[in-house]
Amino acid sequence: MLAHAIFYKKLRSKTLLFYLFCIFSLSIVAVNIAYSQKYNKNMYGVMGGESASTMAYLKHIWGTPLFNLEMESYKAAEIQINNTKRIKNLEESVRLYPYSPELYYNLHLLYFENGNKVKAQENLQKAQQIDPSIQ
Question: How close are the terminal C-alpha atoms of the chain, in Å?
């Protein structure tokens, strides 16, 4: 009878340790889940396109590997926005000067850089019709 009592006492101590381990593990998981749902307060402004929030966000991640990735994406977006503005200006110039092969060729280059290969090819053909020496 004494052996059974010792066995059950050891079993209870191991069970208690197991329960404490489970509670500790669950609390770590709960804290991790709660913390992972917390967004930087500027993130909603960044998603909305607010420049002040974007600058605050970039200052917050300065010096991390994420900063370089974010800057590359912002640069690519800025290039596309600038190209769109240039395309509008060149299209207005083409409307005013429809016989200028340089304008069509520049439109070809900008459309090609933005990924619109159909319009790029159309403008290259128009430039070649006006000036056959354009390759």
Answer: 101
Rg for the chain (alpha carbons), in Å? 32
Query: Cβ neighbours of residue 87 under 8 Å, at least 6 residues apart?
Result: 107, 110, 111, 114
Structural contact between residues 53 and 45, judged by C-beta atoms closer than 8 angstroms: yes
Would you call 43 helix, strand, or coil by DSSP?
Answer: helix
Ranges of residues in the chain whose predicted pLDDT is under 50? none
Enter the pTM of the model: 0.50
Tell which CATH classification among 3.40.50.2300, 3.40.50.10610, 1.25.40.10, 3.40.1060.10 matches the domain 67-135. Answer: 1.25.40.10
